[in-house]
Amino acid sequence: MALILGIESSCDETAAAVIDGNGTTLAARIVAQRIASQDEEHRPYGGVVPEIAARAHVEVLGPMVEAVLADAGMTLDDVDAIAATAGPGLIGGVMVGLVTAKALAMAADKPLVAVNHLEGHALSPRLADPTLQYPYLLLLVSGGHCQILEVAGVGQYRRLATTIDDALGEAFDKTAKILGLGYPGGPAVERLAREGNPKSVPLPRPLVGSGEPHFSFAGLKSAVMRAKDAGIHADADIAASFQQAALDCVVDRTRIALAAAAPGMTALVVAGGVAANAALRGALEALAAEHGLPLVAPPPKLCTDNAAMIGWAGAERFALGYTDPLDVAARPRWPLDDNAAPVRGAGVKA
Ligand code: KG4
Ligand code: ZN
């Protein structure tokens, strides 16, 4: 058994999990997991407030680790290593999780594995689908990131595309805010979109048709704002038309990336919070089929932030002998592909 305690605290979810890296099914791999969302704390502000997030992680994480170990019927002595998100993310929250992991590792004399949160998302499809082999083409779509990467192995990423402005999840969240749907926005927009006509509001498809597979959503968001201000469209129609426009962009950009990818990709894979969106999964399913590839998407609960994916990435790293010193630093920015060239027009989110 390779038992890993995983800890996640990079944004607004506090989570802990016990993962069995040798499990051969998803059910066997996730021995126990707990997650506490801070939605209620952040809702009045319409977005995540970093100080509130860090304080909430501090209050919740210690007892949660004890509880998840109890759920697993274990003590800290039983685990082989402790994995925690070390970035990227809100630095206060990341530090709460990482410092907790360091303290536990020191107290129990266990190795520490510092996990890149994005690697957690990137490898989560392998946690969910034990048959998924490297290399695969990954569409990583979350609140902070929107990238297409070749995943050739643990720590082996080549970025083919990124966003030059907003991330896809951010576009969903901003649309939700414009429509007064509250926070978090993605699931609310998806729900409302089911009641609307996706062809009713003319909206732009930024960068569709361009030869490089990069993304842009800022212009789409502005158009959604103008459509709302016009006062002539039902909110459900705006939501449905926004979602359709966004998905058209994603499908077009991913199609370009599939053509640009190295030969031998075993699957098209989607991960990150927005991968929970059923319409997105449907559209990508069709695109993958066009290319004779399976679409692999983790169950929605493993798409949004969780500790199982951090424990799993820790398990993959630990199996390769990768551990980290107890003085490893938290990193607010930590790209998966250090060699990716900056993209023209890209801001801090690249
Ligand atoms: O991966 P995640 O939980 O946190 C980050 O690392 O960012 O992703 C959160 C993002 C949010 O922008 C949220 O609105 C979006 O994922 N999201 C969705 C859906 N569920 C979550 N967007 C569209 N449809 C959904 N069903
Ligand atoms: Zn995430």
TrEMBL record:
Binding positions (Fe cation): 117, 121, 305
The keyword Metal-binding belongs to this UniProt entry's keyword annotation: yes
Localization per Swiss-Prot or TrEMBL: Cytoplasm
Gene3D superfamilies: 3.30.420.40
Domain Gcp-like: 30-312
Record keyword Transferase present: yes
Cofactor(s) required, per the database record: Fe(2+)
Any matching Pfam family: TsaD
SUPFAM superfamilies with a match to the protein in the record: Actin-like ATPase domain
Top-rank taxon, per record: Bacteria
Keywords: Acyltransferase, Cytoplasm, Iron, Metal-binding, Transferase, tRNA processing
Record note on cofactor: Binds 1 Fe(2+) ion per subunit.
Matching InterPro entries: ATPase_NBD (IPR043129), Gcp-like_dom (IPR000905), KAE1/TsaD (IPR017861), TsaD (IPR022450)
EC number annotated for this UniProt entry: 2.3.1.234
Binding site for substrate: 140-144, 173, 186, 190, 277
Chief localisation class: cytoplasm
MF terms in GO: tRNA N(6)-L-threonylcarbamoyladenine synthase activity
Catalyzed reaction equations: L-threonylcarbamoyladenylate + adenosine(37) in tRNA = N(6)-L-threonylcarbamoyladenosine(37) in tRNA + AMP + H(+)
Function: Required for the formation of a threonylcarbamoyl group on adenosine at position 37 (t(6)A37) in tRNAs that read codons beginning with adenine. Is involved in the transfer of the threonylcarbamoyl moiety of threonylcarbamoyl-AMP (TC-AMP) to the N6 group of A37, together with TsaE and TsaB. TsaD likely plays a direct catalytic role in this reaction.
Similarity comment text for this entry: Belongs to the KAE1 / TsaD family.
HAMAP family recorded: TsaD (MF_01445)
Protein name as catalogued: tRNA N6-adenosine threonylcarbamoyltransferase
Protein species of origin: Novosphingobium jiangmenense
